[in-house]
Specification:
The structure holds two protein chains of two kinds. Chain A is built from eleven helices and eight strands. Chain A is an alpha/beta fold. The radius of gyration of chain B is 22 Å and the shape is elongated. Chain B starts with a strand and ends in a 27-residue tail after the last helix. The chains are: A alpha/beta, B alpha/beta.
C-alpha cells in the first residue's frame, strides 16, 4: 500500500485505511512566542490525527504557518499547513512548499484566503496571483510531474497530501459541489468544509457531492465549531462571511445561563453534530475548529466516542 | 472612461504651501464628464483657493484654464501661453494629463489636484462603477461580459469563493455598501447562455506580465506608423 501513498503522512494513511479521521485547527499567536504553538500541540496530541496550522487567519499577521507547522510537528502533532492566496505570489508559494517539504511537512491545505479588508492591515495590497483551484493544481504538478508552475523541472519533488476547503453554505448553492469537483479535478486529495451548523443544508450539499461521485474521489472532513456562548453564535450568524447559523442554534445556546452553562451546551451541540455527521454517507472524518478554544477539543472528541485515536501502520 | 475625485482641500493647500502664483488647469474630457476636473470645476477650485488665501491673509494670484484634453500634447499648445505666466500648475486632469503637462511644461511645477481612481462607467447620475482593470489580457469572452479581475474582490478566475452570499460579496464597498458578487453574475449569465462549461473548466494561472505587474507598458501600432 505504501507505494501508492502520495505523501505518506499519518493523515493520508488513516484516510486510506478508512479510519474515521479527526483533525483540529490551531491558530498561531500574534507574537514571536513559539511556546504557544508547542503548548497547543501538546494539548491536542493523542486526541486528533493532525492539526491545521492557519495562515494569517482572518487576515491578521501571526507566526507564519510554515514555522508554526514545524513547531507543531516538533511537539508531536502532525501538521496540515494552510496556505492562502492572499499574501503570496506563485514564487513565494512554491518556495514555501519546497521548504515545508524539506522540513518534513506533508499535508497542505490550499485556500483562497479571507479578504485583507477583514484583518488588521486593511490597507495592504492583496496578492491573489492564483486562486485556490490553481494553487491545488500547481502543487499537484510539483508533486506528480516534478514541475514548477512555469514548466521547469525539479530533481526532488515535494511529497504532499493536498487538501482544499469548500463552503457548502456559500452561493450559488447549486455550484458549490461543482466547485469542489473543480478542486478534485485540479488534484485535491482531501477537503475540509466550512463550519457546519445547518445540517439539513449540509446533507443536501452532500447529496450533490454523491451524485457527482466526489465522495469516492476525495476524502471529506466535516467542519465543526463548538460555540462558546450566545454572543459568539450571534456574531457568527451576523458577521462572519460564509457562515450559516440557523436561529434555532442561537436560541438553544441563549436558553442557557451565560458562562459555563452556555459553554456546556455548545460542547454538547458539537458532540451531537459530530455523531450525526459521522452517519452521513461520504464523510471520512471531522475537522474541529475551536477558535481560540482549543482546550475543549480533547473533551469533545472523547464525548463523540472517537478516542482513542487509531495507531498508524507503516 | 477614466474617473477621478478631487483631493481633500486641506491636501491641496498643503501641496501649494509657499506658492503665490498658481494656475488651476482643468481638462474637458473624462474628468469633466465625471464632474471632477473640467473647466467649471477648475474655476470653482481657483475661487476656493483665492477665498482661503484671503481668509488667511496671504497674497496669492490664482487663475484657471482648461484644455480639451491634457493627455495629448497637441491640445496643450492651446493653453501654453497661459501656462507660461505661472510657475505652478495645479492640474485637475487624470494621472495621464498631469504627467503630459509635467513633461510638456518641464520648467513648471505641476501638482495634482485629483486622485485618479478607475476605469468606470456611470451607473446612475453622479455614481460610477469600476469596470476594467486594463490587465492586458481580456477574459470577458469567457465570463459572460463581467470582469472578474476588478469586479471580484479577489480577482478569482475559477468561480466564487465561499464568501458569496445572496448575490453579494463578503467585502463591503468604501461607503460600507454592498458589492455585487461578480461570480454570481458570471454564473447566472453563463447558465442563461447555455455556456456553463466555461465556469466548469479549470482556468490556468493568469499571465500578469501583460498587466502593470510586468512593468510600464507601451503600445505601437506598426501599420499606422509613418513609413
Amino acid at each position: 500500500m505504501t507505494a501508492r501513498l502520495k505523501a505518506g503522512s499519518k493523515l493520508e494513511r488513516l484516510l486510506a485505511a478508512g479510519a474515521f479521521t479527526v483533525t483540529a485547527e490551531c491558530g498561531p499567536p500574534k507574537s514571536a512566542d513559539g511556546m504557544v504553538i508547542a503548548d497547543k500541540a501538546k494539548l491536542l496530541v493523542g486526541s486528533v490525527d493532525a492539526v491545521n496550522i492557519t495562515d494569517n487567519q482572518t487576515a491578521v499577521a501571526r507566526i507564519c504557518s510554515l514555522a508554526a507547522s514545524y513547531l507543531a510537528q516538533q511537539n508531536g502533532c502532525e501538521a496540515i499547513m494552510q496556505m492562502t492566496c492572499r499574501d503570496r505570489n506563485r514564487l513565494a508559494m512554491q518556495a514555501d512548499i519546497l521548504g515545508a517539504a524539506a522540513l518534513g511537512i506533508k499535508n497542505i491545505l490550499c485556500l483562497t484566503g479571507d479578504h485583507q479588508s477583514f484583518g488588521n492591515h486593511p490597507q495592504t495590497r492583496g496578492v491573489f496571483d492564483l486562486d485556490a483551484v490553481q494553487l491545488v493544481r500547481m502543487f499537484k504538478d510539483m508533486r506528480d510531474e516534478k514541475k514548477f508552475q512555469c514548466g521547469e523541472e525539479m530533481p526532488t519533488e515535494p511529497r504532499l497530501f493536498i487538501g482544499c476547503a469548500e463552503n457548502p453554505f456559500g452561493d450559488p448553492f447549486e455550484f458549490r459541489a461543482l466547485r469542489l469537483k473543480k478542486k478534485v479535478e485540479a488534484g485535491a486529495d482531501f477537503v475540509q468544509t466550512q463550519c457546519i451548523f445547518n445540517i439539513p443544508k449540509f446533507k443536501q450539499w452532500m447529496e450533490h457531492v454523491r451524485v457527482l461521485g466526489l465522495h469516492q474521489e476525495v476524502k471529506i472532513l466535516a467542519g465543526i465549531t463548538p460555540i462558546k456562548g450566545a454572543g459568539m453564535a450571534n456574531y457568527m450568524k451576523q458577521s462572519v462571511p460564509g457562515m450559516d447559523v440557523p436561529q434555532e442554534i442561537v436560541d438553544r445556546i441563549a436558553a442557557k445561563d451565560k458562562g459555563a452553562p452556555q459553554q456546556e451546551e455548545g460542547k454538547a451541540l458539537a458532540v451531537e453534530m459530530i455523531k450525526e455527521l459521522a452517519e452521513v454517507e461520504g464523510i471520512a472524518g471531522i475537522h474541529v475548529m475551536a477558535v481560540e478554544w482549543e482546550p475543549v477539543v480533547p473533551e469533545i472528541v472523547e464525548r463523540a466516542g472517537l478516542l482513542p485515536r487509531p495507531a498508524v501502520t507503516e | 472612461m477614466i474617473t477621478a475625485e478631487r483631493k481633500p482641500f486641506e491636501e491641496i493647500l498643503a501641496l501649494l504651501a509657499g506658492h503665490t502664483k498658481v494656475l488651476v488647469a482643468g481638462c474637458d474630457t473624462c474628468v469633466a464628464v465625471c464632474l471632477t476636473g473640467g473647466e467649471k470645476e477648475a474655476e470653482i477650485l481657483a475661487a476656493e483657493l483665492r477665498i482661503q488665501a484671503k481668509k488667511d491673509g496671504r497674497d496669492v494670484h490664482v487663475e484657471h484654464t482648461a484644455a480639451i484634453r491634457q493627455c495629448e500634447w497637441e491640445y496643450l499648445d492651446a493653453i501654453a501661453e497661459k501656462v507660461n505666466e505661472f510657475p505652478v500648475v495645479l492640474s485637475m486632469a487624470c494621472g495621464i494629463g498631469i504627467q503630459s503637462m509635467a513633461e510638456k511644461f518641464a520648467d513648471k511645477l505641476v501638482l495634482p489636484a485629483v486622485n485618479t481612481n478607475m476605469l468606470g462607467m456611470p451607473q446612475e447620475h453622479a455614481v460610477w462603477l469600476e469596470r476594467c482593470g486594463a490587465c492586458g489580457d481580456c477574459v470577458l469572452g469567457r465570463t459572460g461580459g463581467v470582469c472578474p479581475i476588478v469586479r471580484c474582490s479577489k480577482s478569482l478566475l475559477n468561480g466564487p469563493c465561499g464568501g458569496s452570499h445572496n448575490g453579494t460579496c463578503e467585502v463591503r464597498g468604501p461607503g460600507d455598501e454592498e458589492i455585487e458578487c461578480a461570480w454570481q453574475l458570471i454564473h447566472d449569465k453563463l447558465y442563461a447562455q447555455g455556456r456553463e462549461d466555461l465556469i466548469l473548466e479549470i482556468v490556468p494561472p493568469k499571465d500578469w506580465s501583460k498587466s502593470p505587474c510586468g512593468g510600464p507598458r507601451k503600445m505601437v501600432k506598426r501599420e499606422a506608423r509613418p513609413v
